[in-house]
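User: Here's a structure from my thesis project, written as structure tokens. My advisor, Dr. K., wants to see whether a designed sequence matches the one we expressed. Can you design one independently, without my sequence as a hint?
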């Protein structure tokens, strides 16, 4: 992860979410389901107070990295995640259309 400022951004993966923390505060999450060799991205949400910091993109990057490390394809039902993946050449290869 490459935060845009000096604050610490961390992402923790749970069974069905990636949670993003800005410093120590939970700032948002990405809901997903893993089905066989597919990672389904359901929803991405960042709290309004943390908007504009690139945290949604950090969540998408974490999901793509997880897919890459586990040989998964991605189906993005979340419009935000799909948009980020489509605009990022190194992510696009993982998207199942």
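Assistant: Designed independently from the structure alone:
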């Amino acid at each position: 992860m490459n935060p845009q400022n000096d604050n610490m951004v961390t992402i923790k993966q749970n069974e069905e979410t990636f949670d993003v923390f800005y410093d120590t505060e939970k700032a948002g999450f990405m809901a997903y389901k893993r089905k066989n060799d597919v990672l389904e991205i359901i929803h991405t949400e960042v709290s309004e107070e943390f908007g504009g910091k690139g945290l949604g993109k950090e969540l998408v990057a974490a999901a793509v990295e997880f897919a890459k490390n586990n040989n998964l394809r991605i189906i993005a039902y979340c419009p935000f995640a799909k948009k980020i993946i489509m605009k990022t050449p190194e992510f696009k290869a993982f998207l199942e259309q």
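When you compare it with your expressed construct, this may help: Residues 55-69 form the longest helix (15 residues).
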